[in-house]
Amino acid sequence: MGLNLLAGMMLLDRFYLQLTAQAGLRNIAPKENGKMTREEFRNRGLSLSVGYNL
Description:
By secondary structure, this protein is mainly beta. The protein has one domain (2-52). The chain contains no helices and three strands. A three-stranded antiparallel β-sheet has the order 1-2-3, with no helix packed on it.
């Protein structure tokens, strides 16, 4: 489970920029002896795309 955010824009009718971010909401830290620990591991991602439309 997580959040995704996408933002983009066209430049001069040919070029585009796109920024994408992902944030995990669920703690994926392993349990010890079946019990939750105080550790927190969450997925995160960030990407930037630049393109040209033919």
